[in-house]
Design goal:
alpha+beta; ten-stranded antiparallel beta sheet
């Protein structure tokens, strides 16, 4: 009895197993979950208490061993009784860490690029900072105190009053430090150049894993061709 049908079934099963393994590798890529959260700020200002609800968005982009954090506001949370000339207002804020990490991350905006009319909500825009993880695991980022620095003083200090939920959940792996940190891998280098390959951001890990999955599938395909040619002989 010919053994060719058994070889074909074995080859098909082997290829299917490799395809499933490749898909599993891709599915295991680290991810970040972000959501726009309404934050009810209560502000202490030089002209008395103010308050407003602003949707807040927090995002993270991988940058080497750290992350670049951005915090965006869709609405202003305070105003000024006088006009604020160009370049005199700079916002800053703290993000409260939770989950696998603790403490705060400081983010800061750029000075206003245009004059702000009196009695007009001050546009906060986007604040940026750097987060260097200390532990592996899921880390949450929640809006904390917001300070509006204008005319040489802290003109408004705003605190969330509604106990907002985290606006970002970040899955951290390969953190520098901590007992649960895996040993660092050697940096991949281009052959013959001695220079490190460029890193492009949070998709690096996913692309690397995708490449691994594709390599596994190509190896399976090569095995199928080899078995097929050998059977034909």
């Amino acid at each position: 009895m010919s053994k060719e049908p058994n070889r074909r079934r074995t080859t098909a099963a082997f290829t299917a197993a490799l395809a499933v393994a490749g898909a599993a590798v891709l599915a295991g890529a680290p991810a970040a979950q972000a959501a726009v959260v309404d934050v009810n700020y209560g502000c202490e200002t030089k002209i008395g208490p103010k308050g407003a609800v602003s949707p807040v968005d927090i995002k993270a982009v991988k940058n080497g061993s750290a992350y670049t954090i951005t915090m965006s506001f869709e609405k202003g949370v305070s105003d000024s009784p006088i006009e604020l000339p160009k370049g005199v207002m700079t916002p800053r804020a703290e993000l409260v860490l939770g989950g696998a990490d603790s403490g705060t991350v400081k983010v800061k905006g750029t000075p206003n690029t245009a004059a702000i009319p009196p009695d007009t909500p001050i546009k906060i825009g986007t604040l940026t900072g750097t987060y260097t993880p200390k532990k592996n695991g899921k880390v949450t980022f929640t809006a904390g105190t917001l300070t509006v620095h204008a005319l040489g003083m802290d003109a408004a200090v705003c605190t969330p009053k509604n106990n907002p939920r985290p606006a970002l959940e970040l899955e951290v792996t390969g953190a520098a430090g901590g007992s649960d940190t895996p040993p660092p891998a050697e940096e991949e280098k281009e052959e013959g150049t001695g220079t490190e390959l460029p890193k492009t951001g949070p998709l690096d890990s996913a692309l690397a894993l995708g490449t691994l999955g594709g390599t596994v599938l190509l190896t399976g395909a090569a095995g199928v061709l080899w078995l097929t040619r050998r059977t034909a002989r």
